[in-house]
């Protein structure tokens, strides 16, 4: 059998960017969850409809999805074809 080099499609920069995007996503969902209420029997409008839960958290989640998408689309330094051609020379 021939010796074929197999490599992962995404490079190191891609994986770091995707990981950072997932961390931003997790942060957004944690911000959206907020904290526990002071009393489960009473409705406190300021806790549920706070700026953190209504504005900051969804923007953070969308930003996380954008970062993950960018991480997927970043072109690696060398493609498999370029690596194979440089190894033959």
Which key terms come to mind for this protein?
0% strand, mainly alpha
Structure summary:
With 89 residues, the protein is mainly α.
Count of DSSP H/I helices: 4
Mean pLDDT: 84
The poorly predicted ranges are none
- Shape label: rod-shaped
Distance separating the two termini:
21 Å
Q: So what's the oligomer here? A: single chain
- The secondary-structure class comes to mainly alpha
Written as H for each helix and E for each strand, in order along the chain, the element string is HHHH
Number of strands: 0
Helix content: 55-70%
Structural Rg: 22 Å
Protein described:
The protein is 65% helix and 0% strand. With 89 residues, the chain is an all-alpha fold. It has one domain (12-34, 42-88). Helix 1 packs antiparallel against helix 3 (51-73). The two termini are 21 Å apart.
Summarize the topology:
Layout: H1 12-33, H2 45-48, H3 51-73, H4 80-88
């Amino acid at each position: 059998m021939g010796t074929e080099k197999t490599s992962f499609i995404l490079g190191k920069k891609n994986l770091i960017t995707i990981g950072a995007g997932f961390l931003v996503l997790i942060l957004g969902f944690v911000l959206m969850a907020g904290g526990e209420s002071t009393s489960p029997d009473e409705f406190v409008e300021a806790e549920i409809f706070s700026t953190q839960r209504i504005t900051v958290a969804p923007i953070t989640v969308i930003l996380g999805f954008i970062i993950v998408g960018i991480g997927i689309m970043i072109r690696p330094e060398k493609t498999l074809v370029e690596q194979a051609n440089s190894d033959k020379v």
